[in-house]
Amino acid sequence: MAVGFHITAAILMLAFAIVYASDPSPLQDFCVAIGDADADADANVFVNGKICKDPKVVKPEDFFFQGLNKPGSLSNPLGSNVTQVNVNQIPGLNTLGISLARIDFAPYGLNPPHTHPRATEILVVLEGTLLVGFVTSNPAMNMKNRLFTKVLNPGDVFVFPQGLIHFQFNNGKTNAVAIASLSSQNPGVITIANAVFGSDPPISPAVLTKAFQVDNNVIKYLQSQFWWDNNYP
């Protein structure tokens, strides 16, 4: 495992060195983020990112995160866990245009179809075997959305372009681990099923019945299941 993390570190450093960040380029050495709870609520200042801490009080800990070597809990219906390391975990990432995540998978665990609206993702597998893929945006008339998919083994790397729906599935009988690097300090994530069937308030069943061309009762069942899962995990 230690060797795997050394390999991953080298790959990530290379990726970070050549990445073209989608976030605005910084105009200073760093802009360590002030926590949302500590920001002056009366200042009425809104920025595309986080408010900067005074550089004179910045500490090494503002650029530090510990524990990415520890596996995440897999006791959930999907059998996967994402440990995020973005600006909310490392304030020093503010304005730097990068973040990463560790993804753990139980056997046949799934990181379900989702998108990152603000980032391209590059994934490297450390352990196990993953079936991964992404789907293109809507093409010209009379054409279909194209799926790009690949089976990845330890040391393999795959890229998911910004904003496109993608997934990772552990199709093996042992646990799997991957590290993802993203070209934003706060890439965001939209899990397709949660957004469509679990929104609050819910999307009208009439809309979803028409969109998915299924019986109205199927839509109502899916919405009730997502409501139950979100309120009684």
UniProtKB/TrEMBL annotation:
Please provide, alphabetically and separated by semicolons, the GO molecular function terms listed in this UniProt record.
manganese ion binding
For the ligand (oxalate), the binding residues are: N111, H116, E121
KW Disulfide bond (keyword) present:
yes
Residue numbers binding Mn(2+): H114, H116, E121, H166
Q: Where is the Cupin type-1 domain?
A: 66-220
Q: Which UniProt keywords apply?
A: Apoplast, Disulfide bond, Manganese, Metal-binding, Secreted, Signal
Q: Looking at the UniProt record for this protein, which Gene Ontology cellular component terms does it annotate, in alphabetical order?
A: apoplast
User: What would be one Pfam family of this protein?
Assistant: Cupin_1
Listed disulfide bonds for this chain? C31-C52
Presence of keyword Lyase: no
Q: Where in the cell is it found?
A: Secreted, Extracellular space, Apoplast
Q: Which InterPro entries does this chain map to?
A: Cupin_1, Germin, Germin_Mn-BS, RmlC-like_jellyroll, RmlC_Cupin_sf
Q: Which Gene3D superfamilies does the record associate with it?
A: Jelly Rolls
Tell me which positions the record assigns to the signal sequence.
1-21
Chief localization class? secreted
Family that this chain belongs to: Belongs to the germin family.
Name of the protein in question: Germin-like protein
